[in-house]
Amino acid sequence: xxxxxxxxxxxxxxxxxxxxxxxxxxxxxxxxxxxxxxxxxxxxxxxxxxxxxxxxxxxxxxxxxxxxxxxxxxxxxxxxxxxxxxxxxxxxxxxxxxxxxxxxxxxxxxxxxxxxxxxxxxxxxxxxxxxxxxxxxxxxxxxxxxxxxxxxxxxxxxxxxxxxxxxxxxxxxxxxxxxxxxxxxxxxxxxxxxxxxxxxxxxxxxxxxxxxxxxxxxxxxxxxxxxxxxxxxxxxxxxxxxxxxxxxxxxxxxxxxxxxxxxxxxxxxxxxxxxxxxxxxxxxxxxxxxxxxxxxxxxxxxxxxxxxxxxxxxxxxxxxxxxxxxxxxxxxxxxxxxxxxx
Length: 342
Ligand SMILES: [Zn+2]
Fold this sequence. Notes:
The protein is 42% helix and 14% strand. It is an alpha/beta fold. Strands 1, 4, 5, 6, 9 and 12 form a six-stranded parallel β-sheet that branches. It has a two-stranded parallel sheet with strand order 2-3. Strands 7-8 form a two-stranded antiparallel ribbon. Helix 2 packs parallel to helix 4 and helix 5 packs antiparallel against helix 6. Bound molecules: zinc ion. The site of zinc ion (ZN) has 5 residues, from strand 5.
C-alpha cells in the first residue's frame, strides 16, 4: 500500500473512531469576520446568516459560550469548563451589528469584535476585498504588468472568463484568476499603504469596467460601534489602525498602530480595551512585546488549536469558523478539539 493510501486509511479510521468515541471537548476561541450571503467570497471570510444561526444553536447545545475576557481569566485560573468557547469577529464589518448582533442576542452568546479603527467613519473598505473582486469579476486583459517598487512584475490570468456577480462561473475553478489574486496579495501585503494604493490604482485602470462593486461591505461608523456594545453582550478589541503586516513595520510605526488603535477603541466605548488581534495573524517577538507594552492583557493569533493553561496569553490560538451548516460545524469543533493545543 502506498504512503498516500495508508494516510487515507488512517484519516478514515480516525474519523470513524471520533464518531464512535467523540474526543473530549477542549476550550476553543472561534474567529469570524462577516455574517453575510456573499457569492464572491474569495477569502472564505463570510458565514451565511442561516449557517450562523445553526452554528449558534450548536454552540448553545454543546458548548459553554463565554465573553472572551472571562474565557481567558478562567483559562489562566484553571477554572474554565472544557467545553468553553469564545466568539471573535475580526475587522469590524457593518454586518457584525446588523446581522450578527441580533442573532447573538437571541441566542444569548457573547462576542468580541476586533476593530480596525482607521476604517471607522471612513468610506471604502479593505484592499484585499477589492483586489479579489477586481480580478474575479472584471474581464480585464489576459496578462498584465504591475510596477512594484520600480520593477515591472508580470501576471497572467489566462483565458478564463470572469465570475458572474451571483458567484456562478463558466470555468469550474477559476484557477488562474485565483492564483493571480494570491500572488498579487503576497506581492503587496507588506508594502506601505501609499505604495500599495499605487498598485491598486494600476489594477483599477487595467481591470475595472464598472462591473464590480469594490467592497462587499463597509466598516461600522462610531455610532454603530457604540450601538453594538451598548447592552454589554459584545465587547470591542483592537486590531490596529490600518491593518498592516506589523512585523514589516519599523518599531515606531508598529507602536503607533497598536497604541492608537487601543486609544481609539477606548474613546469609542468609554471603557478599557484589554484585547488585541494581530492583522493576518502576523507577529514576531518585537510585535508581541509592543502589544504587551501597550497595556493589553491578552492577544489573539490565528494559530489553530484549542486553548490551555499553558497557552501564550499574547498568542492565543483560534479556530477559523467556515461557512458550514450545523452538523458540519459540530464535526469541525470536534476535530479542532481532537487536534490538540496550540
Ligand atoms: Zn483582520
